[in-house]
Structures are given as structure tokens and as C-alpha cells.
Amino acid sequence: MTAVSDEIRVVLDGAWGDLRQRVRHELKPEQILGEPGQSVAEQRARVTRQLLALADAGYGRIGFPAQYGGELDYGASCVAFEMQAYGDLSLLVKLGVQFGLFGGAVTRLGTERHHSAYLADIMSGKLLGSFGMTEVGHGSNVQRLETTATYDPATSEIVIHTPTASAVKTYIGNAAQDAQMAVVFAQLITNEGGHGVHALLVPVRDEAGNALPGVTIGDNGVKAGLPGVDNGTFAFDQVRVPKANLLNAFGDIDDSGTYVSDIDNENRRFFTMLGTLVRGRVCVGGGSGSSAKKALAIAIRYGDHRRQFEAPGDEQEVVVLDYLAHQRKLLPRLAKSYALSLAQNIVTERLEELHGAGAAGGEKDQEAQRELETRVAGLKAVTTWHALETIQVCREACGGAGYMAENQLGQMRADVDVFTTFEGDNTVLLQLVAKGLLTEYKELWGDLDPAAMVGMVSKQIAEGAVERTTGRARLQKMLDLAKGRDDDSALDDRGWQLSMFEQRADHTLETVAKRLRKATKDNAFQLFNGAQDHVLLAARTHIDRIVMEAFAEAVDAMEDGPAKALMDRVCSLYALASIEEDKAWFLEHGRLTTTRSRAVTAQVNQLCADLRPHVLTLVDALGIPDGLITAPIAASPGA
Amino acid sequence: MTAVSDEIRVVLDGAWGDLRQRVRHELKPEQILGEPGQSVAEQRARVTRQLLALADAGYGRIGFPAQYGGELDYGASCVAFEMQAYGDLSLLVKLGVQFGLFGGAVTRLGTERHHSAYLADIMSGKLLGSFGMTEVGHGSNVQRLETTATYDPATSEIVIHTPTASAVKTYIGNAAQDAQMAVVFAQLITNEGGHGVHALLVPVRDEAGNALPGVTIGDNGVKAGLPGVDNGTFAFDQVRVPKANLLNAFGDIDDSGTYVSDIDNENRRFFTMLGTLVRGRVCVGGGSGSSAKKALAIAIRYGDHRRQFEAPGDEQEVVVLDYLAHQRKLLPRLAKSYALSLAQNIVTERLEELHGAGAAGGEKDQEAQRELETRVAGLKAVTTWHALETIQVCREACGGAGYMAENQLGQMRADVDVFTTFEGDNTVLLQLVAKGLLTEYKELWGDLDPAAMVGMVSKQIAEGAVERTTGRARLQKMLDLAKGRDDDSALDDRGWQLSMFEQRADHTLETVAKRLRKATKDNAFQLFNGAQDHVLLAARTHIDRIVMEAFAEAVDAMEDGPAKALMDRVCSLYALASIEEDKAWFLEHGRLTTTRSRAVTAQVNQLCADLRPHVLTLVDALGIPDGLITAPIAASPGA
């Protein structure tokens, strides 16, 4: 660690830097690393053992309410997850299922009776549980789940039932081997009729580990990755649980058997429930971001000493990272990892503000909650795809060595894969982002023309995100400086870069809103479907903009000096590589001249060359504990 | 199979259609499918067992010389490989190592004494062998291998030795468990000095399977994929083999201990030797192409019945392949699979012409050989990346189900991964393509200006490929029709499409040649390195052009009717999706107006919609044996 890398690390660490430092020093590699080549049974046993050991060490308590023995705050649980993601990802997902999904659902969807009864045992690992949402027939469209939970007034019980083969719960983590209890999402039905999807606590195994009567447990068996996670299936045949097992924070059945809820609208109630579970997506985004960083650390360290092919007239071969093509593979992705990391910190802070112990609630928070959900959904999609692609590119950049299990990339790549479709399919999530943006839009509809509306929406969203900081004013200042001189300003002008991101996001949203405004009852699906690529673009560019703003803000807030100067160039590389990827859009929309468009590519190449001497500093600044990078190729050749 | 899909299948099958049909009907699924979840030891045992069974069934004989018991022709071995690639890829690679790399090297680099001694046992699987090229320190730069083969005139033996840790042979298939013998590539040294890299037969295990004295065999252990392939390491400590073990087709040591070769230039000799092994790359390209097709068949069949989310006003949910975003993921990739398949057929035919039993040899063939190598290198890179990306997209398009081993995509994805860096790292191969093009260039240098030279080179290359057919004349006719009316011609005008591919390839090559022409002894590396992204673009666009021409030619040669009409649209989708991907380039270089550029995207969307009703026909036409698609999600829901 140099002074520069340390200073940058502190910036990347963000608000929970102390916790990150604690985890770096406290966790031993053997506590969270996996072992390649074990059988599925061995992997599962190892992961369960590690999970219980981490629970013993107190890691299960992070983020739970203090009054039940929890520790630290809600945001801290996301940060701990990010740090644990530098270890084995099967273990990470198992931790996420137990403490995040299962424990989180009991906390957020349940009430005091559930908290006092179960949280202590969940944190300690004494009670292992599943999160039973997905069904064979329904992954993304959770509102159409088919499992039923029917209230029986005669016994005050609720009957859980799987009516069809497509209603079987599947891909459920912890199910095949460990869970004693599951949070089951099902259509709640009383005498009055259906009330939409609700969650209930359903015991699934007895103390000896056998399935309880009426519960059929299956094993999803071998998967493309995450071998240590015991994904499985649950089917219920008229299984009865006490009414008290309904997680009743948002809807309940009173003593007279009548359904009661503070939220009358079934649709709104459903999305409010789901909204309280937004942490899962925050964690998946953060965890996959960590994986990308670890892969980059391995590939960059290897590329910094691996030699292949001699330059004309040279006897010694060239270090592969001195090749432009190699830099092109790794450095823009490193810059993007920085950018996403800083954007991730902001959503984690925002999550703590809105969902942490001190959250105020109320109308204003509802608006902020929607903004958070939109941002989290998009950032999860963008980060998981970034991670998948980055790990793959790193694997290829390491050649055959990258394919060997000992060099860690293969398992990471296989594990991260599923992050792109679980906790929300990425394509569906981006549509959710667009829907969020367009909803804001609709509410401002009135007589405004689309351009004016986009201005308002985009301002509102930006302000929502940075209102607690002086960041927005800073960003606005940079933007204002850039206005009106697009083609004259230097490519490394931050204001110009920000303006390009803003224009891309605003224009795509504005035009998609115009297209969709023509929807009538009869053509709605056709119209929406025909614009789907445009909708996805609007969502992605919106997220890109948010990410760029997070990076610009963080650099601007640094003290002048070599660390800031270095970060400034990394930020420019992120910005220009993103603009370069969308060159066609900028050209088509007259936002870049052809001359300037070519200059962008030249400048990306130049920045790669400029950053080349600093790559190890930039990798060190990621703060990945050295003990977790066991890949022999990442070791310095002198070591 | 409908008449249409059958007609298209025959076109895709190409020259070895009969062999493909034979394999389709003859091979039982259990002969070539793998089993998910087995341990590495079980996978290896299963793969060895399957390999020996296939050898018993005669599959090892395909492509070997008839006089030693071989069967069919050289090109046929590539086609058989493509068909076997619909099964387990560990088995495929194991077959490739035994019969292709090991057997191929003995055939092509050895002479009669090696053929008569070993080929029968190689074909029958009695003699299992390795191909010992890659070393720890040298993967791509094979000329710098460090293993030595020193001739000892006292005993007429050659001493094989591993002088350093970086000289250890590694990632060698068949090494860890099965090989009794290895073709070892080493620096051949006689009293006169070094003669560059040569190949030798080195026994490595005794009959009981123990390493022979002086040979240290290691196990690469668990990998990111290909669990059934026993990759391992060889280190040699002064291991002596008879002089006769030198594979002496291109260089020998005579009885007086003097090195003799028909090719004086060491560099040329080395590349001539490697050139005879070009089949390996043909196979890897073809095999990965098959994998992409199988993944598309699974994802498209699932997407054709999986439903998720209801359209407004509809009770039933929408079939996911009716969504534009889903079509966008799968259909352009299906079109590209068609295109690559047809281009692959051409290189296979070309390989047979130049390397088959009837090959003439001579000057003309040397030029053709260089053209073949260039084309094969590029097609291998483009196809393996296409396969990797396609399988991944298919996995995601199938959601959580795509991640389950039973649905076959995960293992394929993990296995195909390494195809991007073995048999030549893709990035290095694309540079080889560019080098090939620029060499032609240089030879035509003289006083011509670069544009005129590119015209000549590109004409020559195109003619080289299609001279045996009337295809070139056809292509030229389509091109001529399109000239001079770029912006007026319809987007589905084949001539215009071809012209866009031609312009992109020619212009990138022309400009990169101009840049590199400025090279002096002092700036050569800097200049080349600074242009590396440009060099890679020139290579890739050249291959894209060749692929497009293969598709256009095949469609043009079909009889008029519904099959041709359908193929015509698939070809347009391939063309326009490729143009769309490089929109920025076409805009920057004034080859597309912004209006037309947007129209390209709209037309890609339109073609996806047009082809949507025909997807199952197009999948059937791939001719993948149904028994090899065991993924439950690919079964029709009524089945």
C-alpha cells in the first residue's frame, strides 16, 4: 500500500470504511474460501459448516434490529456482504439466503411476535431457513404465483397448498438440505376471496432433518455454478400452519377471520411488501461488483509480469499488459468497477437512510423509496452483467492459466452467472427502471411537453439521490461550465462528460415517452413491445448517468494531490469508454461529430497508456485482502 | 421436419451431408452425452470409456490415410467432429487430442516409419497419446519453447530435457491419466547448433500406467470446464529416445548426425510444420459452432412455450419469444450461427482440397495454404467467441432453468470457454489474420497506392476462396448491381449488404496498412502496438466479410421457393445485425447516414418479428439429433 492507493481505498470504501477494515483484518481466508474439485455433497457440507462458524463469530447479527441482539446497521449488512463476496460465492449466497432473504423477510414482513420468536435463532444459525418465492411457472412475474394459503376459520389455521406442477417452489436456496423453515409466498385467500401474494412461515423439516408431513422436498441437483448451495424444491399438500405464521406487517387476518390491511390496493400492497426486500438486490449488485474486482486484480497482476512475444530487435519478450489490446480488455473494466463501486456506496447509504433504524417513514419517504428501488434494480442489472463479462475477459486474458481452478476465475465466473437472473432477471429489472422513470413522467404529465417533463423528472431523480450532500451543486457547476461548447471542450472535461451522459439519458427517455404516449387500450402491448429495445436503452443510460455522477462527485470531493489526479483519469476512462460504446447513438443524434467520435477512441487508448504504470496502485486501492487472492498467477514472480 | 426445414438442412449440411446423416442415425445419445455431477475421476473414466467405444465403432479411423486403415477423407474428420460436438465436450476434446492432435501430428509431421508403427494403434485407441506443445512460459509464442531435444551422436539418441520450470509442458490433454506416448515439441539441437522447434515421439508411461524413468507427470487438476479431460504436465529429465522418434517430415538428422531439411529457412520451416496442423483450428471452430446451435435450439424451444407476464387486458401470459427483447437476444445469433456454419463448410472443403489425399502440392498450393490458414484462424476466433456469448445469452434467456445442469447449457458454457484461448488465443489469431492480409499487401507493394493494393488483395483473397465455384461471379453481380446507389437501395438488397461488408473490410485494411507503412526499425513496436485495436478490427471485418459472402452465395444458389425465401431473410438478419453492431464505424466513415443507420435498427427488429413464426423450422433445420437435446425445458409442453 502506498499513500496514493490508501487514499483511493478510503474513497472507494465509503461510509462503512471501518467495517471494511475490520472484516479485512478479522476474517481468515479459510473462513470464507472454497475448495475446488469437491463433490456437491462436500461443497454443501463445507458451506453449511462455514456458515455456522461465521454465525458463531457474530456475522449473522449484522443488520438485524438491536433489540433482538442485532448489531451495526442495515447498510452495514450490505457492506459485510460485499466483503464476504471476496471469498467463495456459494458461501456468500448461502449467507444471503439465511440472513438476508430468510432473516430479512421475517424482520421486514413479520411483526414483533415473529421477531421475538425467531430472530435470535436465525442470527445464531440455530434456525436455518429458506425464502420460498420462485415457482416452476413463475420467476419474474411473482404476482402470478400459484401456491395458495387458504384461511380455515374453523381451526384458525392457514392451509398451504401446491395446486399444480407449475406451482412447485423451485431453485430455493437452503431447501434441498438445511432449511427447517421457509418463508413461503402464496396467494392468501379468506372467505372474502383472494388478497394477493403474502408471505408465511412454514416449517418444512423436523429436528432429524426429515420433511414434515405434507411437505415434499426435492433437490435441484447439479447447477452451472454455486455447487455449495443446496437449491431445491418445495411442494405442499394441504399443509396447515397457525394463523400467527402469517407475516403480517402489511396484511393480517383478524380474530373474526376478516382480512385487514393498511393498504387497500392489492397491487400497491404487493409492491410495498416487495419494496421492503430491496436489500437483496443491493447485496447482489455489491457482491458481484466485488467479484469483478477480484478477477481484475488477478488478471492485472498476472498481466503485469507475464511476457509473450518479443518486440522487433528485443531479446526479452514484452509484458502482456504493455500491449494495447490487453490494456483495452482490462483497464476500462477496472475504471467501470471503480465507478460502480462508488454508485453502490450511494445506494447502500440511501438504503440505510430509508430502511435503517432511524428511518422516518411517511409520504416523502415513499417517493424516495420508489427512487431507491429504481436505482437498485438498474444498478443490480448493470453490475452483474459487468461482473460476468469482466470475469470472462479476465479469464481469457490469463489464457490457459485462467482456466485452471487454482487461479480462481473459473468458479467465480460460473457462480456469478446466475446473479444476472436471480433477485430479478436483469432484462426485467431494466424494464422496471424504465417503468419507474415513466411513472414519474406520467405524474407530471399535464400539459407539459415531453422535453420539459424529462427535464423535471431527471432533475427530481438526480436531486433525490444527492440531496443529502453538496454533490448536486458541484455536478451542476461542472455541467454549467460545459454548456454551449460541446465540441470545443477537451475530452477530459468533466462537465462535458457529464453533459454527454445527461443528454443520452434524457433524450432516450424523452423519445420513449413520446412513443409510449400514443398507447391506447388496443395497441398497448404492440406499442410497448415494439419499443422494448428503446425502453431498455432508456433504463440503461439512466443508470450509466447515475454511475457517472457518483464517480464525478467522489473525485471532485477529494483533496488535490496525486491520488485525486489519478482518480480523475480513471473517471475519464470510465466516461470515455462508455461514450465510445454508445458512439453510434451519439453520432445518430448529432451529439458527436465524426471527428470527435474518432478522438474519443484515441483518447481511450491514450488513457490506457497513461494509467498503465499505475495499475498495481489501482488494484491495491480496491482493498481486496491478499489472503483471499490465492491464484498462483497473481503472485509477484519474485515472491 | 417439414419440407422447408429439410431443404435448409441440406444447404447447411454442405458437402458431407451423407456423413452427417449417418452420424445422426448411427450414434446413440449414451455414446456421446456426459453426466452432470460426476466427480472429476468419474468424468475422466467415463470419457476414456466412451472414447474407446467410439474407436471400436470405427470413429477413430475417419480422416486417417487409407493405406493404414483410415476411412473417408480428411475433411470428413472435421465434419464428424462437428457432429460429435452435439454431445459432451469433454469427450469431444479427448477425441480431438487422441485422433486429431496426437494422431494428426504423427500423420502430418511423421513419415512412413511412424505411420506403419503407430497409426493403426492410434486409430483403435490401443495407443493413447498427448500433444505436448504448450509450456508454462509459452502458450502463444510457440517458437520460444524451452524444452530441448539434443542429438547425441555417440548413441544416435535424442535427449529430451526440461531445463527450467517455465519449460514444463502444461495443460496437455490426455497427460494426467491416459497417454502412453506424447508428441513433444522441443528445440532440436545437434552439434551444429539449434534448428528450431521440432516434434518427437516420447513414450511417457509404461504398460502399467506408471511414468517412465525421467518423466514427471503432473495433474492440472480441476478446471473451469472440460472435467472429463485429464489435462496435465510433463517434465523431462534427460530422457533418451531413438533418433527414429523424430517426426521427420520437414527436418531430419541423417546418419552422419547432420541436420537436413528441404526448407532452409528455420522460420519458414517452423510455420510450415504448424501449417500442416491447421485442422485442429478448423475443428475447434466447427465444434464450438455446433455448441452455439445446440444452445439456441434449447433456448428457442423453451422460449416458444414459456410464458411470463400478461399483456394488458389478457388473462393468459405472453410467450416470452413474442417479446422483442427476447427475439433480439436469440434470433440475430441464430442467423449468425447459420452464417458461420456455411463459412465453416467452405474452409472444410478447402482443407480437403489442400490437405486431403488428392492434394497436389506445389507453389500455387502454398499461396492457397496461407489463405486457408488466415481464414481458419479468423473463423476459429469469431466462431468460438460467438459460441461463448451465445450459450451465455441462451442461459440467461432461460432464467433459473438455464442454470440447472439438466438443461445442458451450464456445462456447455463452461467447456466452450477454453475454446477461445486454446488452439490459438483468439486475440493472437486475429493478429495472425491481419498479418496474413498485410503480407499479401507487402508483396504487392511496389508503387501502388494503398487503396489499389487493398483492391488487389481483397480480390485475390475472395477469388482464392471461391474459385472452384461460380460463386464469385454471382457475388460480383450482386455487388455491381448495388454500386452507386447506396442510400437508395433497400436494406434487404443483398448487393448493398455485401458492399457494406466489403467497404468495411477494405477500408480498415487500407488505413491500417497506411499507418503501419510508417514503421521504421526504431518505432516498429510502438507503431504496431498503438494500432493494435485497428489491426484487430481489420482482421475481424475481413472474416465478417468472408462469412457474409458464404451466406449470400449459399442463398443465391438455392432453388426459388419458400426455403430460399426464408433463408434470404435469415441472411438479411445476419447482415443487418452485423452492420448495426458496427454502426459507429459506418457513420464515422460516411458509409451510413444517420437516417439510414436508424433504419437498420428498425429493420433488424422487423426481421426478428418476420422470422418469429418460423423459429422452430429454423431450429429443426440445424439438424441436431433430438436424442442429444435432453434438456427438459426444450421439450414441447404437450410431449
TrEMBL record, chains A, B:
EC numbers for this chain: 1.3.3.6
Q: Which cofactor does it need?
A: FAD
Q: Domain Acyl-CoA oxidase C-alpha1: where? A: 275-438
Which key words are in the record?
A: FAD, Fatty acid metabolism, Flavoprotein, Lipid metabolism, Oxidoreductase, Peroxisome
Q: Which residues form the Acyl-CoA dehydrogenase/oxidase N-terminal domain?
A: 43-126
Any one Gene Ontology molecular-function term assigned to this protein's record: FAD binding
Pfam families of this UniProt entry? ACOX, ACOX_C_alpha1, Acyl-CoA_dh_M, Acyl-CoA_dh_N
**Mind telling me which Gene3D superfamilies this protein's record contains?**
Acyl-CoA dehydrogenase/oxidase, N-terminal domain, Butyryl-CoA Dehydrogenase, subunit A, domain 2, Butyryl-CoA Dehydrogenase, subunit A, domain 3
According to the entry, every stretch annotated as the Acyl-CoA oxidase C-terminal domain falls at 498-638
Residues covered by the Acyl-CoA oxidase/dehydrogenase middle domain: 130-239
- Some GO term, biological process aspect, for this entry: which one? fatty acid beta-oxidation using acyl-CoA oxidase
What is the predominant subcellular site recorded for this chain?
other
Q: Where in the cell is it found?
A: Peroxisome
By sequence similarity, the record places it as follows: Belongs to the acyl-CoA oxidase family.
Q: State the name under which the record lists this protein.
A: acyl-CoA oxidase
